[in-house]
Amino acid sequence: MKVNTRKRGNVYEYYFEVAKVDGKRKQISKCGYKSKKIAEIEGNKAMNNLFSGIAYEPCKISYSDFLDMWLEKWVYINLKYRTIETYESIIKIHLKPNIGFYTLEQLTPKVLNDFMTDLYVKHSYSRWYMRGILKIIKGSLRFACDDMNLIPVNPALKVHIPKYDTAPSDPAHIFTKEEINRIFDRFKTSHSIYYSLITAYYTGMRKSEIFGLTWDNIDFKNKTITINKNIVERNQKGCSHQRHVPGSTTCVWYFGTCKTQSSYRTITIGDTLLEILKKYKQEQEDDKKLYGDSYIMHYKKEVKNPYTNKPEIKIISASKEIPISCPVADLVFVKNNGYFLGTGTIKYAMKVIHYELGIKSRFHDFRDTHATRLIESGSDIKAVSKRLGHSNINTTYNIYVKVTNKMEQETANTFEKYADLKLDNKERSTNEELWNNIYCQSKRWCW
């Protein structure tokens, strides 16, 4: 098989045969070249690209327009809501204004490296944030290269974030028993806050998992909690294009899928948490009677995701006196009147812990503390990893298990027992006499 050329008026055309379609011959051709030689060269390039599996032509689409395409065709379909919001924000603030005017073929490693360096120099963003920006660039251009075949190679593969001289700070805080007692004592009169913090401390569950719990997830007989969903906050339309709807709240809660496949799990709980949750459930039943028809009920309404067109569950609320045909969403952590704030329940609590109690921490630190204390007490790392919903034990060790003073002391004590050296005064005296004799003899040899 070879490339042929022919003259078409004042220009030349290349053409070559490809696979037959429905038994009929089919050709690839392109016209408009000034000379036969140029047409032949371009024809060979086209044929080589085609038969090597690369149907590539220089792409003139701007990176800005391509990012819109990438969001629609890949990001909205494959990623979770919070990640989508983060991607949209970075694209709007950094990528489109600074490199969006380049065509895809103009995005070279030099252009991208210069962009990353300028961001670092001008804004001093954290390593984590810079990695997030580069992840979006690499992901979008990988889609352009591997999925859309718009560019032959991904230029971002040779791009790196600038070197950071200072070690990144670790924001994790492992609570002491004294701190935990102070926190629980401060919120013991705050209905949903108190019980949600205790659940976090005793289970190590993620924030979105805790506030996604419904009472059917808690098995009081078998002493287990099943994590099969989480809670997601979105705007009224369930998407991030329109953040405000005049005259209405912009916050709507949805039941979402768990973070990973290993996040779907059933964990065992001890008697302490079991009795606490039983007490809380009884308090909630008493509140329903107290508030009567004005108690806020929550229901599960099936809607279509605007991006994937797949069904998902939206949480709607109404006073108990209003009849709703949807199934009841029997949420665990609600206010005394039944109102559901979702993860917003503990925003005020964390400010109190930080400023009033003087304990600088995040809600996620309850999870860190749970994992660390389990390892510290000698629990099996595989069991801890499964309890936290990790796919492998490396994640548990590297991210959630922090070295405490107790663990360091036990490490030193372990080697102390292994070494088991016992030197009494007599042995030391004998050794000293031996070395003195050797020293004296050596001096005589020197003389």
Secondary structure elements and their pairing?
Layout: E1 4-8, E2 11-21, E3 24-33, H1 36-51, H2 63-78, H3 81-99, H4 109-123, H5 127-147, H6 177-186, H7 191-203, H8 207-210, E4 218-219, E5 224-227, E6 230-234, E7 252-256, E8 265-268, H9 271-291, E9 296-304, E10 311-319, H10 347-356, H11 364-376, H12 381-388, H13 393-400, H14 405-419, H15 425-446
Antiparallel strand pairs: 1-2, 2-3, 4-5, 5-8, 6-7, 7-10, 9-10
The level-1 CATH class of the largest domain: Mainly Alpha
How does the helix and strand content classify structurally?
A: alpha+beta
Classify the beta-strand content into a percent band. Answer: 5-15%
Average pLDDT metric: 85
Largest sheet: 4 strands, antiparallel
Give the domain tally: 3
Helicity range of the residues?
40-55%
Provide the low-confidence segments as ranges.
Answer: 238-248, 443-447
Task: Describe, in plain words, how this protein is organized in 3D.
This protein is an alpha+beta fold. It folds into 3 domains: 4-51, no CATH class; 63-158, Tyrosine recombinase, N-terminal domain (DNA polymerase, domain 1, Orthogonal Bundle), CATH 1.10.150; 177-368, hpI Integrase, Chain A, CATH 1.10.443. 47% of the residues lie in helices and 14% in strands. It contains 15 helices and 10 strands. The chain has helices at residues 36-51, 63-78, 81-99, 109-123, 127-147, 177-186, 191-203, 207-210, 271-291, 347-356, 364-376, 381-388, 393-400, 405-419, 425-446; strands at 4-8, 11-21, 24-33, 218-219, 224-227, 230-234, 252-256, 265-268, 296-304, 311-319. A 4-stranded antiparallel sheet has the order 6-7-10-9. Helix 7 (191-203) runs antiparallel to helix 9 (271-291), helix 7 runs parallel beside helix 11 (364-376) and helix 12 packs across helix 13. The longest helix is centred in the C-terminal third of the chain and has 22 residues, at 425-446. The protein is extended and about 90 Å long. 21% of the residues are buried. The model is unreliable at 238-248 and 443-447 (pLDDT under 50).
